[in-house]
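ingest -> fold -> write
write: protein_1
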Amino acid sequence: MNRSIIALECTVCKERNYSTTKNKRTMPDKLVLSKYCKRCRKHTEHKETK
């Protein structure tokens, strides 16, 4: 199976808020999305972690 589960971590407060899946074969680089952080109470960049 090519899709793997990843966690998205807030770059400001380092809290892991979201989880998603991605295909590592088509997207080898780390995923960065703008998502809402409950602790910061605003939209921040969330980076992929393990």
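write: protein_2
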Amino acid sequence: MKNDLHPDYHEITVIMTDGTEFVTRSTYGKPGAKLHLDIDPKTHPAWTGQHRLVDRGSQLAKFNKRFAGIKGGDAKADAAASKPEEKIKLTTTAATAKKKKA
């Protein structure tokens, strides 16, 4: 069997969202590292039945910034939507005019 094939398996401290801690073994980080959880069984909607937004990585902020104008609060978008469309003026060619006469 090859040497140094598997990562180091050591003890770390896991910190739940409410501040409680427990020690477990993992390959995460270095020995004695602390892992802070954003979502755990005490806050996850599947176990609590309540919906709560957690935005640690600012993904929700990016989404809201990107799609803020969709609500109707953007005056430029509303003005563009209410502007009447330009009609295309059709012209007849000589070939089309001959077909109509015949």
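write: annotation protein_2
The two ends are 91 Å apart (CA to CA).
The chain has four helices and three strands.
pipeline exit 0
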